[in-house]
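Summary for the steering committee. One of the milestones for this cycle was to obtain a three-dimensional model of the protein with 6-O-phosphono-beta-D-fructofuranose bound, which we needed before selecting residues for the alanine scan. The sequence and ligand used are listed below.
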Amino acid sequence: MLIPRCDETVAWGALAGHYEAHGRDLDLRTLFAEHPDRVCSLTLQAPEVTVDMSRAHWDVATRRHLLDLARECRLAERRDAMLQGALVNRTEDRAALHTALRAPRGKGIHSELVHDVLGRMLAFADAVRARAGGDQPGDIHDVVNIGIGGSDLGPQMVIPALDAFTHTKLRFHFVSNVDGSDLCEVLRKVKPQHTLFVVASKTFTTQETMTNARLARQWFLDQGGQHIERHFVATTTNVALADQFGIQTTFGFWDWVGGRFSLWSAIGLPVAVALGSEHFRALLAGAHAMDEHFFQAPPEQNVPLWLGLLDVWYRNFKGYTSRCVAPYAHNLRRLPAYLQQLVMESNGKGVDQDGRVLSYATAEVLWGEPGTNGQHAFFQMLHQGSDVIPLEFILVKKLPRREDGHVSQTMAEMLETQHRMLLANGLAQAQALMWGKTMEQALQERPPTASKELPPEVMARHRTFSGNRPSLTMVLEALTPRSLGALIALYEHRVLVSGAVWGINSFDQWGVELGKAMCNDLLPRLESGDASGLDAATAAMIGRLR
Ligand code: F6P
């Protein structure tokens, strides 16, 4: 299909004109005053997730041009091509079919394959759970996932997120760094006869993962561990290499599952062990519901579409270089790290699908921390710093809690109050970002800690907030397997929308190769000291580090 480059479309020109005429100076306070129905018209419902986009920097004209851009870039056709298994990952001749992993049996492409592995994996997970915490050798107490990037970040994010649903007699550990202290820290806490190691690697060649897997195997044998075959399993597309490693139980997946989209595949095994098959299926069902929304909802109501288009508007026209995600839920503390890979590895590209160098910016920097912690760290900059950084609030109406007998009635009430505090904090931050504080307002205040020496006008200037800082608010009724699945899929599709507009390949990651190759060259040099042919800085540093 012949698709114009985004910057060659009529809509792109219209957006540039609109930016010059109005878009540069959009002020949220004016937009709200002029359009009393703004909240209503810009609050959209996707499965499990309500998104309030009213505090975003856009107006009716912006959105009209963005929809035109989506049409001209043939987003619907590209989305459908992905669903139908076209080789959208052109630099690797691969499809991107993570949606097939969460489709009900008989529905998606490769359904038999997918459900065969899923069934085996869930049966295995339930069997581990059935004997969890027991005294017999082979009864599992600890699960150690050894993997990195997409073979780590998903399970590492989901298990704490769904803490209330996890098996109480199992502990989960995640080892990723080639720095041996990562694994050693975990090994100090576990016993070989009660530990299950999951070696998670799509390729089964990744330096960090294979090195840590060998170290774990050595430790297991050194500790007198018996039946290594029962304590090491693999999740990979490379069953042959897992075999060579000596692993007998392998759950496979396929090259059409990208690493950062692989949570739904066998890479989700630790999640399945933590949650059990029923909740794991609910996670998949939530993601599938979001897939259906993305593939079927009309553009005007299509939440991932709008969010992806907003990202394009912010990046290419408003010039925002980063986006902060602040989940107001301690359990979602690993979500920003997960999204970082999703957004930046997918869309941090400099050429289009045809290899033409881009003249426009692509992925923004994604970063964040849970609220309220972030408020006491970097929110200062969001409120008064020189850059405008759109902020994304994720609020959970009701936090599920484990019925574990440690919470008395009084404590339960106190926890309810704390939860209201959490929500009030999130609401207040969004409000403060938008409204700010004028010089006049600041002049009227006499904060007790303010300098008595500085003139009041100077003091007031320090305490003025420009306001008009944009944010989005996403609301989940509760943090459940289903709602989390939907939320993650929403973020996945959003990334695909902006990537498709930019005309890039969101499914490859050639940018990580160069450093890997150079590391392979430097590793023996660190041992031998041979610095011949190296640049002066690297050669000098080799000398220093030896
Ligand atoms: O860092 C590059 C990368 O290929 C990621 O895309 C991937 O998620 C990670 O490494 C791990 O790869 P593997 O699962 O093959 O070990």
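Key point for the committee: The radius of gyration is 25 Å.
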